[in-house]
Write a structure and sequence with these properties.
49 helices, alpha+beta, 42 strands, 4-stranded parallel beta sheet
């Protein structure tokens, strides 16, 4: 294995050196030393002067240099080549930038006119970047070329290439965004520069141009052109509405290219590399399939059908074709190998390695070896003279064989007839434009990726290749309704439509006319030196006005433009306005891509609702009925119907106040624009105020506003609509959760299920029910319960209610004796009919999913079950949906596993991990799949474990969370090289087992029942590293049967000191403080230094075990809003065991609906002041539930305050001494499981201390090698091939340590090597003449430990001895692992000292 790494490293360096020479000879050799530009070729033919520098060709040509520069970044000693290549890329990009900046006046004009004469030129003089032809002498308007430049600029800047240097250049790039943002409506000449395929110079709307513009807008949006050193002014901004319009147009065009081209090979650059502009996988598949069918040949793809370019039948004396002559080019169109390079790259970037391999094979016979080009190529069509093709576009004096890609292959004259008669049957010849640098660059790029010298993630750091894997989510649209004045507000309230007047809005929020936002954005990119005015003052669309903006500390909301006063008279028809509003809501929901929710602020005016108000006050009372007639689809009814939370077209909406929407809205800061010297914000406000006064004279009147008083009487759906008593809410770091197994034993389970099913039923009762499985209210008297089993599934039939009548925690599978047992073994079809009958009768989701798993093991997933009129897959989808609605996560994971669902963002997160040099593995043992490169979803589909169908979804979750964590808190991954998901699951299981005191099987069930948030939080705890062994982290929530689970996070140093001081004296120190809404609005408790915060409104309760100092339970009850919460609070107190310490603190308010049962519960604990507590008072309580065995209850601490927060109350309690359970008579030194916990977790995560790998290299260099049982890591050739800091060496050591299966044992091995290095460091002359047997050193150390503390036999108690040894502290005393390992190493190792 070590030899493999060395050979691979040497080969990589050799291949990089080869590509450096090849790219130098074919691309960089032609780069102009002054301008940095590259000519397309050295040929001059009737088709053009190829010595000019085309923008498109230059960008494509430099991509190979870009890829090679990235590849060299991986090399420690690159001889300066990475720097050289990087700056060659920068020089070319800046050369293009300078050439375009010389035409800044054209960009300024084009933003307004989109006229051909105002477009940027498509090609420039290679020597100086000046124009070479006139405005009308070439098809210059090529939006795809400018867009490609922006795509490359975004990618290269993100990769760390500094291309833009000054603010002037930033402003010009921002104006290039405005130049291309209207591609959806700007006909251009397209990628082939001729427009209409007849070459008459007629521009068209081209899919390739729109798609590349869309890709550029997505790529450049938010990119800071100064990189990490930039500020807010150097970030590029793209308005979302322009981006979305381009996307909508593109999707409607594809697979068509333009009006004259039904299909075009350039579609590959849109659906694949480099644009990746399409999000719909089906549209990608369809476009590619159609293009392949119509355009692909043996030598490449045709550009488009009937393309006569460089065919022998083309009349080269004219540039255009006669329309009647196009047919003569049919079936003999030139074929371009260029498109094969696109397909190779698309396959590599999307994970379709089969496609990549297929087209690399098709390219092989088309490659021309530079060493064999000794004689002149056949004279190609269009050559000006026999001598014009004698020069080739590469340096042939390199002495190495370089693959060359010709521009195209044409059909020679003698084969024309035969080719037309039988397409793809005749040989073709390459033209003399050899190589086409554009195609050769892409070929080199694919070769670098194919040889693992480069990864797609490096070339595409923005992850645009994953565009088609994004999840389509429907966003909730927040709608804020404002009344023009109080009179209209009162009128609307008569219909139950609650609104605010503008004067009631908080003083720090201002509502402005959308024109003001147009004026603000007009300053974006404004530059007087370049003569650029910034963004044209075009209206900002609904996506832009659905964001909130922060300017100089003030929040500004803008009304949507379609509700503008100028559009008002169009909207006077209520039916039209409602239709427009519904369309805008749907558009916003479908196309929103910002964080937070879109917020639409609508100002209802007297003019807008004048017809309604006139009818309201008619003397005839029937007028009101006419207004509210359901047959009339007017604006009032529309807004009233939105109160249900859904528009008529199914879009989810939320009517709310403006202050309530701020926390969930997207807020953009525009301070950097307002602070520009030529921006007059005061004049913009004055203009907006004047406009508003003309429409609504009172809109900007600011009156006093008390949010507290408003909130107290705010109407809305905060009160639970269901009459079913809710189970107590238990906070898990801010999230409520309940154990599904416990919920299953309650009536509320079936009532909640019934509610979920009812909400999903079609409105028409005559329609066929969506769900096929029996609903709870249809449950028969006889039911079947199925227990989950690894090897089989057991079903129990009995009588009685669908849930146990007693209060035991016995699972449903443990029904009373005498039940009729149905044994279902996976894959055994003998019980299939009985299983179907059980499924038909079942009303329990746990039963249903287990039976469905059995059915899926017996029949294909599309098997049709007649009794339920559905397939197994449809039934699984049903259970999957139900489980998600009811948050039964174990069932959801089981269903997801059976349905083989893959998280779309999985590959993105794997990429985020591997580009940070974190290897990811899935599975274990021989089935362990190791990923060190980005992996596509297709490759991931078949590598998940089948032992437990739930493990696959959990593994995906873990990878997702790891990717998220490494992006946000990368330091917690320090020392981790390889992330093995199987062992991470073991660590999670061990953590739950330790916390809950349960066995492994129970811990796995707990793990599967965790919500995704809880699982991520637990994973974060596991990754927290050294904090896991601190004393204070003993404060955890213990999960009792039917209870809940919570875990502590690492403590700060101050908290650790407090905890250590308190625990050292066997004391339980509790501090608590409360603050009502007006006095700080918080509730917090500190338990031995561990601070717990109340995250929601109401009463917060902490239950603590006095003897173990463990936090048993934590609950939150919103008794401000619901008296049902008061009942649940009493149930919670009743559930606690006698002697439990109870801490209560109120946040915001907790007494408005605190009923007599809640008050009595507190008084039963000893409260005497709860009846005095009033609305939003601060209140805190520390007491003990009576009946404990620790003596009489201690004196209660209770405090409330009406004019501020309570004091920080403190109670110190003594805790009875506890003795650790042991099967031996001797008390061994230990750390209460903390070091064992840390070693298990660190071992599962493969964490090593700093400098571990270089230190291990030193050990290996001074010995003959390392041994773990029968496996060795020899000194030679490992040390000879790999350096101490080399990544491959770390991988080799990591693979060697993987032979230790037990994570804790692996960590002791790491400590053993650390100890040996310390010994060597103290004795530099020390050498070892033999292998270092790591396991022998560890066993000897454990034996030393056991012999010191026990007289019993070590061999007979070896397992116990190792377990106790693993819990020793690492160092600091004689009884530490380092101490025993040092003693063992000195005894075992045959040291030699060279004095």
């Amino acid at each position: 294995m070590t030899a493999h790494y060395s050979i691979a490293n040497q080969r990589a360096l050799q291949r990089l050196d080869y590509y450096y020479q090849a790219i130098n000879a074919t691309i960089l050799n032609k780069q102009n030393a002054v301008s940095g530009l590259i000519p397309a070729s050295v040929a001059i033919t009737t088709h053009g002067d190829y010595t000019d520098a085309w923008v498109r060709d230059n960008v494509y040509s430099i991509y190979a240099v870009y890829g090679l520069a990235l590849a060299y970044r991986r090399v420690d000693n690159d001889n300066g080549r990475a720097f050289e290549l990087e700056h060659a890329v920068i020089k070319l990009m800046r050369g293009l930038l300078f050439a375009m900046m010389r035409q800044a006046h054209k960009v300024e004009q084009f933003k307004k006119t989109q006229a051909l004469e105002h477009s940027l030129h498509a090609k420039y003089n290679t020597s100086n970047g000046e124009t070479v032809v006139g405005d009308f002498d070439w098809g210059h308007l090529q939006i795809d070329a400018t867009s490609l430049f922006l795509v490359a600029l975004a990618d290269m800047t993100t990769s760390g290439f500094t291309i833009v240097y000054t603010q002037d250049e930033v402003d010009f790039v921002q104006n290039l965004v405005f130049y291309i943002e209207r591609a959806y409506r700007t006909p251009d000449y397209g990628i082939w520069e001729r427009g209409n395929k007849s070459n008459h110079g007629q521009p068209e709307l081209n899919s390739s141009s729109i798609g590349m513009a869309l890709a550029a807008l997505r790529a450049i949006n938010g990119v800071n052109l100064f990189g990490a050193r930039g500020g807010p002014t150097t970030v590029i901004h793209v308005l979302p509405d322009e981006l979305t319009r381009n996307a909508t147009t593109l999707y409607s065009f594809l697979p068509r290219e333009s009006n004259s081209k039904e299909i075009d090979g350039s579609v590959l650059s849109v659906i694949g590399f480099p644009a990746f502009a399409v999000t719909d996988p089906e549209l990608i598949r369809r476009s590619k399939a159609e293009a392949k069918e119509k355009l692909e040949g043996k030598y490449g793809w045709k550009r488009f059908l009937r393309d006569g370019h460089q065919t022998v039948l083309e009349d080269t004396s004219r540039l255009h074709y006669n329309l009647n002559e196009l047919k003569m080019f049919e079936n003999i169109e030139s074929e371009w190998p260029l498109f094969f390079t696109y397909l190779v790259l698309e396959g590599q970037f999307t994970g379709d390695h089969e496609q990549a391999s297929e087209y690399r094979k098709k390219l092989e016979p088309l490659i021309i070896d530079s060493m064999n080009v000794q004689q002149q190529l056949p004279l190609s069509p269009g050559s000006a003279s026999p001598g014009s093709s004698s020069k080739y576009s590469f340096n042939s004096d390199t002495g190495i064989s370089i693959p060359l890609v010709a521009e195209l292959y044409y059909v020679p004259t003698e084969y024309i007839d035969a080719e037309k008669a039988n397409p793809h049957s005749q040989p073709r010849s390459p033209n003399d434009n050899l190589p086409l640098v554009w195609a050769l660059s892409l070929y080199f790029l694919g070769s670098l990726i194919d040889e693992d010298l480069l990864s797609p993630s490096e070339v595409d750091p923005l992850g645009r290749r994953f565009t088609s894997q994004q999840v389509n989510r429907q966003h909730i649209v927040q709608i804020v309704l404002l009344s023009e004045d109080a009179a209209l507000q009162s009128t609307l309230s008569m219909y139950g439509l609650e609104t605010q007047t503008v004067g009631e809005i908080a003083s720090n929020i201002t509502v402005l006319h959308p024109r003001a936002l147009t004026e603000v954005y007009a300053g974006l990119g404004r530059n007087s030196k370049l003569g650029m005015s910034g963004r044209p003052k075009r209206p900002v669309g609904v996506l832009g006005t659905s964001r909130l903006y922060r300017i100089q500390g003030q929040i500004y909301a803008f009304t949507p433009h379609f509700m503008d006063n100028e559009e008002f008279y169009l909207n006077s028809d209520p039916d039209y306005l409602v239709s427009a509003f519904e369309s805008e809501i749907s558009f916003t929901s479908q196309n929103w891509f910002y964080p937070g929710r879109p917020t639409m602020v609508v100002v209802l005016t007297n003019a807008l609702l004048g017809t309604m108000r006139g009818q309201l006050f008619k003397h005839n009372n029937d007028a009101i009925g006419n207004v509210t007639d359901r047959s009339q689809k007017n604006l009032l009814n529309f807004f009233m119907n939105l109160r249900c939370g859904e528009s008529s077209n199914g879009v989810r909406v939320r009517l709310c106040r403006l202050t309530e929407s701020i926390n969930t809205s997207n807020i953009e800061s525009l301070d950097f624009l307002i602070n520009q010297p030529d921006m007059n914000w005061e004049s913009i406000l004055l203009f907006a105020n004047k406009t508003a006064r003309n429409r609504r004279r009172s809109i900007h009147r600011k009156l006093g506003y008390d949010e507290g008083e408003t909130q107290a009487t705010t109407p809305g759906g905060r009160t639970p609509g269901s009459k079913t008593p809710r189970r107590r809410n238990t906070a898990f770091h801010g999230k409520s959760l309940a154990s599904p197994l416990d919920r299953l034993n309650q009536e509320s389970y079936f009532e909640q299920l019934s509610t979920a099913l009812a909400s999903l039923k079609p409105q028409d009762d005559d329609d066929e029910p969506r769900f096929k499985l029996k609903e709870p209210e249809q449950s028969p008297a006889m039911r079947k319960a199925v227990s989950h089993n690894t090897d089989g599934v057991s079903s129990t039939e009995g009588s009685g209610s669908p849930f146990p009548t007693d209060s035991s925690d016995r699972p449903l599978s443990e029904s009373p004796a005498g039940s009729d047992m149905l044994s279902l073994m996976l894959g055994d079809t003998s019980q299939f009919p009985q299983a179907v009958e059980s499924l038909v009768a079942s009303v329990n989701l746990y039963d249903q999913i287990d039976v469905l798993q059995y059915l899926a093991s017996c029949q294909p997933i599309d098997f049709y079950i007649e009794q339920l009129n559905a397939t197994i897959k449809e039934l699984l989808e049903e259970v999957y949906l139900k489980s998600m609605r009811l948050q039964y996560w174990s069932i959801a994971r089981q269903a997801a596993g059976l349905l083989h669902k893959i998280v779309p963002s999985l590959t993105i997160n794997i990429t985020d991990l591997v580009i940070r040099q974190k290897q990811v593995s899935i599975g274990s043992g021989p089935q362990e799949y190791l990923m060190s490169m980005p992996t596509g979803p297709d490759a991931l589909m078949g590598i998940f474990s089948n032992d437990d169908v739930r493990e696959g979804p959990v593994v995906q979750e873990i990878i997702i969370y790891l990717g998220s964590l490494i992006r946000t808190v990368p330091h917690i991954f320090d020392g981790i090289l390889r992330l093995r998901t199987h062992y991470i699951i073991i660590a999670l299981r061990e953590e739950i087992s330790r916390t809950n005191g349960c066995d492994e099987e129970e811990a796995v069930e707990h793990l599967m029942q965790l919500s995704p948030f809880e699982l991520k939080t637990l994973l974060g705890t596991i990754l927290s590293g050294p904090g896991l062994c601190e004393d204070a982290s003993d404060i955890v929530v213990r999960d009792k049967p039917g209870g809940f689970l919570s875990l502590s996070l690492p403590l700060s140093k101050k908290e650790q000191q407090l905890a250590s001081a308190s625990m050292a004296t066997d004391k339980l120190v509790i501090r608590a403080q409360s603050a009502g809404y007006s006095w700080g609005n918080f509730a917090q408790v500190e338990i031995n230094g561990n601070v717990q915060h109340g995250n929601s409104r109401g009463i917060h309760v902490w239950a603590i075990d006095r003897s173990t100092k463990l936090l048993l339970e934590r609950g939150s009850f919103d008794t401000h809003i619901s008296s049902e919460e008061s009942i649940e609070f009493k149930r919670f107190i009743d559930w606690l065991s006698p002697g439990t310490i109870v801490v209560v603190a109120i946040k915001d308010d907790g007494v408005e609906h605190l009923g007599p049962e809640g008050i009595e519960a507190l008084e039963s604990l000893g409260s005497t002041k709860i009846r005095k507590v009033q609305y939003r008072d601060s209140y805190v309580f520390i007491g003990e539930k009576k009946g404990g065995h620790h003596g009489p209850a201690f004196e209660v601490i209770e405090e409330y305050n009406r004019s501020g927060p309570t004091d920080l109350v403190e109670k110190t309690l003594s805790t009875p001494p506890t003795r650790p359970k042991s099967n031996t008579k001797t008390t061994f030194p230990h750390s209460s499981g903390r070091w064992l916990r840390r070693r298990k977790n660190d071992g599962a995560l493969n964490r090593v201390p700093p400098q571990f790998f270089p230190n291990t290299w030193q050990i290996l260099d001074s010995s003959q090698g390392l041994r773990i049982r029968q496996h060795t890591l020899p000194r030679d050739p490992t040390v000879l091939e790999k350096t101490a800091e080399e990544f491959n060496f770390a991988i080799a050591v990591e693979g060697f340590l993987a032979w230790l299966i037990d994570p804790a044992e692996r960590q002791i091995a790491v400590e053993t090597l650390t100890v040996i290095y310390k010994l060597k460091e103290r004795n530099p002359e020390m050498r070892l003449a033999s292998m270092i047997d790591i396991v022998q050193i560890m066993d000897t150390a454990v034996e030393f430990f056991w012999s010191k503390w026990s007289k019993e036999s070590y061999k007979e108690n070896k397992g116990t001895a190792h377990r106790l040894f693993y819990d020793l502290p690492q160092q600091g005393s004689d009884d530490s692992t380092f101490g025993y390992l040092s003693k063992s190493a000195l005894k075992v190792l045959p040291f030699e000292f060279n004095y």
